[in-house]
Batch of 4 targets.
Target 1
Amino acid sequence: MAQIKIGLFGFGVVGQGIFQVIQRAKNAHAEIVRICVRSLDKPRKVAADPALFTTTADDILNDPQINLIVEVIDDAQASYNIVKKALLKGIPVVSGNKTMIANHLPELIEIQKNNNVALLYDASSCGSIPVIRNLEEYYDNDLLLEVKGILNGSSNYILSRVFDHKDSYAEALAQAQALGFAESDPSFDIEGYDSLFKLVIITVHALGTYVAPERIFTYGISTIHDSDIQYAREKGVKIKLVAQVVKVSDEHFTMFVMPEFVSPSKYIYSVDDEYNGVVIRGECYDRQFMFGKGAGSLPTASSILSDVMARLHDYRYEYKKLKYVQKPDYTTDIMLKIYARYSATDVLNILKFEKIHEQYIGEESNYVIGSIRLSELLEKRKNLSEPDVFLANIPIFFLNKDN
Amino acid sequence: MAQIKIGLFGFGVVGQGIFQVIQRAKNAHAEIVRICVRSLDKPRKVAADPALFTTTADDILNDPQINLIVEVIDDAQASYNIVKKALLKGIPVVSGNKTMIANHLPELIEIQKNNNVALLYDASSCGSIPVIRNLEEYYDNDLLLEVKGILNGSSNYILSRVFDHKDSYAEALAQAQALGFAESDPSFDIEGYDSLFKLVIITVHALGTYVAPERIFTYGISTIHDSDIQYAREKGVKIKLVAQVVKVSDEHFTMFVMPEFVSPSKYIYSVDDEYNGVVIRGECYDRQFMFGKGAGSLPTASSILSDVMARLHDYRYEYKKLKYVQKPDYTTDIMLKIYARYSATDVLNILKFEKIHEQYIGEESNYVIGSIRLSELLEKRKNLSEPDVFLANIPIFFLNKDN
């Protein structure tokens, strides 16, 4: 039986989780032989032999006994440097860094191919839910129509507190931070970037196409107000931050991240608190739903362990769908129906709606329900961040340009 | 790119579904080149070129261009003969026959090993939900504690009608048969055998141990009465037919199929109608939930397609966990808390309860809530099939013999 000797980069919450999980997995045949950290003196909850630690990346990269690098540092640029260097040296890597992967995936795929080396990253999307592996292996066909879900636990926790416990948004955010579900700078989670990067990675494995993050409309929950929550409650729906990639025709797919009104009949309606939930819809199997803990030390670590164990059998992503001859192209030329709430900002002057279905003018705020092209939203994105503006998708229909 | 030339055995509901799905999957590189059926004259909804059909199995088994056999006939003995013959000839097989696989898996694993040939059967357990592949590949470690779920769509449909629509059991069964969710002889589904065979297969891939079906306590829903339904409603729970395999200690696991009182806080509570739902619980990732259509022509066919596509990349199950050194052993020496309803049959005389927690004596029927060993239930199984007896698990606790 092969033995995996791991060089671990990062010993924060996730790194310590990996250390614990590998100790518990008696049949894993894996061992952490070196740990590279930024600072040796930082106090840590999980105790590891001090002799394992180094602050020099090359102590791992040049150690001939190490046959796998596990990288869970939270600096995307440093992560990129280490992963690229390791792959170029032919050392396989398991990474959980969604920002780094989402921004560099085309290059990293090339390097994997040219150097015949594996980069696995299932933990980067939805923690312990095996989305990437299933899209790559099990849904290895062109029947797939849609992947849609709640991919960020922090923002979902906040929205759950607001909807189910009637906390204010500020209370919910503070509570999320106190519990460690949100970073001290929570914008990465609540502005939708975390979901966006996961969606970029998912799309490569779902439809075989890489779309750069900046080409994708992304809108978070930071400007949600009581009036939006009240509106949703009156309609009997919840507001969830939803990421989705959808085939809109045989030739095109679209993708975006934005708050959405979710009715009780939808699977993701009951994905609450810090959980993630992903719906995979296909032509013949209808909808599959996967649900689990999307973040946290041990769930993420157990996902990393799955990738580590896969290396025992020389597993690598084949990126089979990248080679498909008939692949749909990315488009933002689709019609959405959205809810746009505003007060001082003149949203109707900023956004060109194709049709206004409803308009409400109140003393404190106004809203419209209107049909609008996704391309229009993407183009005007920078004008839609004012604190008095909030947008949400109303998933009634997708219309492509032909109807 | 390799090309898969399929010899298909069986052209019933699932076989026709496979034919349709492979036509739709443009990038599948797979083609059905021969179809073996029992009768050429049977009218079929899906039209296929008559030249494809044969009634002679050897027309497929001896055809050198065929590099994959897909077997979806509903006769377990005929299925066994064909699959064994094919594997011994070195032809890989995809099968959906849970009865055949659950009863012959040890031998089929040996044949795969000795002949270096693959047998894939993800469709045999939970239709379109990728349980086997995930247990084999993604949960390829010893952190797994439990796999528990609703594995049979027909019985679940019946129970849903009874609980959510207040149909009588007889009405619900008739409705299930009318919709094609239940066979004209529904005992396979409602007596729990379908769930049992799936559980046997799941356990091999979950914990690395094969347990023969006859060693596993299996109890269905055919004797459920209005009084049981009323009891469950009063307690605010649903009755579901649940199959489970659970590690009860580091050294032991147990498994059984029986109706269970399911409270609204459980994931499987909301698995209704003909759907299946599986909860996978592990030491570090807590609970993962997978949900989808467990049966039906196209969902099953799309699962078969996943196995077919996997053969493009020479995928086979490695049965890694069978090789684990530290594996838990099967035990029935665990304590359960059950509900036992009866009228004429003297259940208290048949079953030796360790403790009676509640006893109700009524004019029409009686029940007890008591603690009992699973081994006792298994031993007395044949005496518990009287129409006036119904048992259900109350999943409050598992006690092994030490506490």
Target 2
Amino acid sequence: MNREVNVKEIKSSNNEYIKELAKLKIKKNRDLEKKFLVEGYHLIEMAEDYIETILISDIKDLNIIKNKKYIIVTKEIINKLSQTQTPQGIIGVVRKKEEFIDDGNILVLDNVQDPSNVGTLIRSALSFNIQNIILSNDCVDIYNDKVIRGSQGSIFKINHIYCDLCEKINELKKKNYKIYGTSLKKAICIDEVKFENHFALILGNEGQGVSDDILQQTDCNLYIPISSQIDSLNVAVAGSILMYELTKQTK
Amino acid sequence: MNREVNVKEIKSSNNEYIKELAKLKIKKNRDLEKKFLVEGYHLIEMAEDYIETILISDIKDLNIIKNKKYIIVTKEIINKLSQTQTPQGIIGVVRKKEEFIDDGNILVLDNVQDPSNVGTLIRSALSFNIQNIILSNDCVDIYNDKVIRGSQGSIFKINHIYCDLCEKINELKKKNYKIYGTSLKKAICIDEVKFENHFALILGNEGQGVSDDILQQTDCNLYIPISSQIDSLNVAVAGSILMYELTKQTK
């Protein structure tokens, strides 16, 4: 037996609740309310466990996920809340999930700024069974809509924490994690790395790479051999190749 | 001895030449004029061989590349032509380079739509010494500003052609190229592939993958093993990992 579906309707985009939700487009308000918005069927399915309320403009979407609170809204309201060019007519209000369990391999992001890069890296991390992500406090917000879209919803399947990297890396070293930096200085080729059971892989800013104080804490630094015709790979590509290589031997 | 620098000045954004250049933001006009614009120091250096004219708003940039035609313009003109949020004050007018030489490994893109993905893939291709790119006619325009920025200027170091993929793949097969598709159906794991001296690797659309008629022409299809928790990798990541693996053995 299904529980009775709890449905109400909002027709004005000046409704107070809608105005509150629109504020979640700004990081400051997401931090304050500990909530964020996701758009579209795929992301709402991925976020299922953390969804509070689902706003729909088409009655056919009612009960698309069972046992959730639904609000029927106008297309105008969807457009007001949407951050995509062609909204799908369904928006979820999602509780932030903040937890971190360091019991497996870890991806560490040091001041990575581009939301598509962070989204793509989280998608690749989950693909290679790395479910723990540590972000420096100056990384882009993981609840930015472009990060969520770039991650294809994989942010709902990983654990993450924002923190001071130096402190956190010290903790991990005490727990016998192998700490891999990425750098061209004093680095070894990814082909020559022997597998370690627990590792943390650190990727850096798009322009500057991993910061010097963090590189001083690593056990070793890795590089991917590339043509002399080009300076570097995109950080999401480089990180994904390294995660692929480092986890390949455990399959 | 330097040749005398050829400099003129334009102050009005309504100048006919500036209005013509502004039209190059649209693909149709880039196709017609066989020209496009690049912005910023790094990209202008990368495009050096193909640059016709350099527009600068700061006199200090005069002669930044030797033996080119310079026009000093206002910041307003730079803003009119720029497609970035923070223009660097230097814009190059570049001749399109259309050539294709199938004498090495080849990357083939079938209806790839996202300009950042195409830019990133070209950057990775050059990184792994793949300098020939074939694009289906329905791929995004390689001279789109987001492709150029995503490629970090590597589009100036590769050969490319837009064409009908079925015909072109038939030609490559006659030249003994090994044709690799990417698919989850009837595919073999990338770990199990034996190196071939000349290959063409085909990547498909972000949503639909490689089209069925193209997959029928491949010698074999490759996949990258990933977690069951996720459907797929980003196409730029998947393509980069495959290029990395396929070219690794030739180093």
Target 3
Amino acid sequence: MIVDNSLDEVKKRESALKVIKSIMEKDGRASLYDVTGLSGGFIASEDELNLLETYVGPAIFEDELQIQAKKHLGGEKALAVNRTSSGILASILALVKEGDHVSHFLAQYPAHPSIPRSCNIVKADYDEYINIDEFKIEDNTSLVVITGSTMDHQVIDEDLFIRVIEMAHERDIPVLVDDASGARLRTAVFKQKRACDLGADLVVTSTDKLMPGPRGGLMAGKENLIDQVKIKANQFGLEAQPPLILAMVNGIKNYSEENLIKAISRKDDFYEMLSKDYKLFEKTPTGCMVSENSLKNQLDDLDIETELSDKDLCFLWAMILLREEGIITIPAVGMPGASATIRFDLSTQDVIDMDLDVLYEKIDSSFKKLLDVCKDSKKSKELIFN
Amino acid sequence: MIVDNSLDEVKKRESALKVIKSIMEKDGRASLYDVTGLSGGFIASEDELNLLETYVGPAIFEDELQIQAKKHLGGEKALAVNRTSSGILASILALVKEGDHVSHFLAQYPAHPSIPRSCNIVKADYDEYINIDEFKIEDNTSLVVITGSTMDHQVIDEDLFIRVIEMAHERDIPVLVDDASGARLRTAVFKQKRACDLGADLVVTSTDKLMPGPRGGLMAGKENLIDQVKIKANQFGLEAQPPLILAMVNGIKNYSEENLIKAISRKDDFYEMLSKDYKLFEKTPTGCMVSENSLKNQLDDLDIETELSDKDLCFLWAMILLREEGIITIPAVGMPGASATIRFDLSTQDVIDMDLDVLYEKIDSSFKKLLDVCKDSKKSKELIFN
């Protein structure tokens, strides 16, 4: 294994950031194509920037945040957090005690690691389910979690969503929805209702996922629960700081479902193009993706011999895409525990109007390089870490 | 008790932020005087702002952060975190296990609550000491913490600082220094060495304390320890986001010891002015302050009858200072657990050139109002929460 643990993932990310910097400096921003679907923005006017002081900033932006967050997520009260993961940690610190149980329902494994990790910190038992018939709520359960849309954009069925909430509420257990990308994917693309409108008590979304906001988390829900989460967030420094809050407000204001819808209309053409030569791509709601398994299978079909693990192959391809073609994907720059699936999101600003033939050429050419490099473990390691 | 728990503290802060907003809207920024010493800035050029994207931003600013952080704090590697508290949480998550021991040495009680609270989360034993002769490192200790300068700006003696580090290192235990304001107060004012230069393995400072940076935390230290802390920070969303990193870099670049030195030169005049009529003020390195005790004693001397607790009296005065005079102090806007001491920091941008007579009048007039209001518990509660 080349990328074997969280420290390796941190080092890989550091290496990717260095490559991005050097491309920026050498060829400029236009030579980078961020298709992560996580390319957040930082929209701010000069007047707003002048207010970005410790105590004056939040005073001004907090009111507007409440208004915009309620429009976007519903609920009684909102709370801006530093990241979706820190919102999940704050929620679990506030609502779950040692020995309690947390049940998590999602459309498909794996769950985002911040949920079991946060349970582990408070020493709570944790179970996850993808089959509603197996879904159980143990006696000492203090929190039920639902993932609206997984890291790989698998969206939960709305009827199951409602059923899990009902099961939890029958027993007076609050429901937290991890709607990181789901708050937009589920509503704009799958025409589902907002989590709070379906009865969720707390919801958290990522303000950089499929919307022009900053990397950050936005929570909404029942006022008394938000207040409890806010205490933990403030105690441990998990809340969003004024510059993020400002950019979140403007991100929501500038969000429209248009880019998502446009990406969907182009993804079928893109998928067809890719599938002529390759059978490793799958459709996502807003583009195409390659999973660890499909990549491994395609290499096996081509009789490529490699010592690399399936995951390492994804990391390697992501680094080649970045180094050779300037294409930024999550396996290159993701935080520890992020999915190794290589996703090409067509809804991002960098590719929303890009000629798909050009994008295809870049992917095709980087794959050929991958076939060559992956036979050489030493060279692969260099490409990932240096 | 009016402000009785963390939730009350959150509500009090929300109320103070509303007052700040209304003053801003009605009378403009010039009618607010932030003397918290926490009035961070957000210095950024237009070009830099354009780079504030999720993955492009950190790629660009990360290198510069390493350079500037090393200049400011020393050490082998730096890490930007969302707040000093989140850096402390990340450090304890990384280095301390259940049943381990953490020993904390500081100049004066109380310790910043994020340290015992983080120990509590991982179920570690925690002890704090202000007397070097009593200072003990238990057998199963995995971390020694030193506070460079307390929330009330009590600075540790440099010889004791070195002695605690030596005691920890004799037993191969890493030392984390909470140098929130100390990284500047100790060095610029008390001419002490930087924590890393004194042998500390990790240090964290607040980039909004006594420097023109954003609310946020900056860590530095041994590379292998920073890497371990970084993993936890990334896993739980405790790291600083690109807008903060950018503003931290510029905050350090724009920091000079001048304002601190100037504040010191004015504080004696200010103290003399205040002490003519009042005996409740004490000097701080950069201004004057009123502790819970001194406030209570002065009211007793004046035979004022009040049902308010000592802490509530501080909160009430802070809210009157804000509502009536536009003076922002920490007890009004602080996070849960922040000190109730009312500090008037003369080094902040808003008062660095202010006529001290004008500032005196404001403090004097608000104190007279306090004497009146504190007799009426209902009215006091309204002023704090509404």
Target 4
Amino acid sequence: MENELTKVSVDAMGGDNAPLEIVKGAVEAVNESDKIKVFLVGKEEVLNETLKSFEYDKSRIEVVNATEEITCDDSPVAAVRTKTDSSISVALRLVKEGQADAFVSAGSTGAVLVGAQLIVGKIKGVERSPLAPLIPTRKGYALLIDCGANVDARSSHLVQFAKMGSIYMRDVFGIKNPRVAIVNVGLEEEKGNKLVKETYPLLKDCDDINFIGSIEAREIPNDFADVIVCDAFVGNVILKLYEGLGKTLIGMVKESIKSSFISKIGGLLIKKKLKMALANMSSDAYGGAPMLGLNGLVIKTHGSSKAIEVKNSILQCISFKEQNITEKFKQNLVQN
Amino acid sequence: MENELTKVSVDAMGGDNAPLEIVKGAVEAVNESDKIKVFLVGKEEVLNETLKSFEYDKSRIEVVNATEEITCDDSPVAAVRTKTDSSISVALRLVKEGQADAFVSAGSTGAVLVGAQLIVGKIKGVERSPLAPLIPTRKGYALLIDCGANVDARSSHLVQFAKMGSIYMRDVFGIKNPRVAIVNVGLEEEKGNKLVKETYPLLKDCDDINFIGSIEAREIPNDFADVIVCDAFVGNVILKLYEGLGKTLIGMVKESIKSSFISKIGGLLIKKKLKMALANMSSDAYGGAPMLGLNGLVIKTHGSSKAIEVKNSILQCISFKEQNITEKFKQNLVQN
């Protein structure tokens, strides 16, 4: 039975709401699925104290002590190298040593990305390990791959992103024959910058993905593709503009509602429906961003994560393990 | 007096709403400002017929016959070369020959971009002529430069974009000491892809612009900078995501309002305030996108332009001429 559990090491000290929301998310994950075991990594006494107020199966949450913390002010590379007893380093070593299948953190993105590569390491044959958040669309969500720290990608990287993203969406999220598209400035095959022009024919030649061609940025929110491939610079621009513009527009709607007595009443009447509609556009529901192509799964959640996002990130790891994604990555990327 | 007029040649056949909305926009511009003269370029008999229903100063709208039309299905390069009697080609020649100061079109973006370079030509010393739309922000608008057709830019191009954009925002839109920022994936100077890392120190060294550093995409809607510099691939992604996400979110708000009787009533109560708030986020108010660095001004408006956008685009040309922007571009780009 112990062997069938998906074991997740969780950085209990990372993020704006640590440790309380992280601990709460871990407890909720364990209570929701009996397939999960969590290693809560961080300051032992703090975590044991925090856990006291929750009810859960004691055999499936284990506190692992880590005395140091990496903050967003630390240089990621230096922090991972020198703070070897930080919650991120200790938790990643659990994955490296095979004690955990996956790692979840709301901590410093830089440290997670660097630590994952240095400690867990890439699958042999994987050139780059992309960070691939799920972005909300009108009808659901799409995997935006890559939004990581390595900009200036090569076409061979993008091809691997397309393959890994495709497997992930199919086997972790159950999307049949996921549609793969490359971000471009037009739909015609001859459009694009140097990187896209080089990559397009390579994607077209892949038998093992459902490549549907280019996607213009205006179609991204429109449920046009399931796996959206781009280099990390463009991915970061898309991801952050998504967040910024969504926030600005929703803020403007709210401000306009508050601006008069009449519109305030109107606001009360639409509140419930509006909330339901916009809930879809929130990333919390899907959990954090997986970092793919490593010897294990690493999931980075928002720094502002609450328990629900932590819980959903932990639960995502079950399919990853059960579907043997790492093995599929190896077969798919090496054989081609 | 004739000499002091700003003369604008207008592609009366381009865009989804041609010729009616284009003609109407031209008439409104002439009626609003006595500094404007318009050459309406297109099929003579159609335009004369359309003009009949409007009141305006007959001496300031002149129809110029052009028998051909370039459609969005035409290859831009071929169309500009072979359809020499198209409204775009004829109107651009008026600028080339100095009969008009500026050109406005809602027609094929590709044909306008190609035609502007081939027929009007770049100012000597300008390496690339960027297309720079105004994008709405929470408090106003910012110039996004470049969103044109030339991707794979070099750092020297981006430096020229920053200078031209700065002059344009200062002298055409009256923004004092416009803040210039470069699109990046983080705020630190060492962040970025190869292009951004090369360009950042060059911008920092420019004495004649107010360079404030990097801008992350999430801050773009937030009135963080007045001139936002990037290569055309990234610019196109930003511009189109702006349109797409705005449309999707506003659509979701509307759908949620329509989804029940109660929320419909609420919707009626907030309608006026909501409309006012979102009007800011509409591009119509500012007119079309200028293409800078040419021997004259070229303005590309949306294909779906109505009279108001055409009018505002034509009126933008007055400051461009009166402030002698072309001369300032020459001085600023050549001397450095």
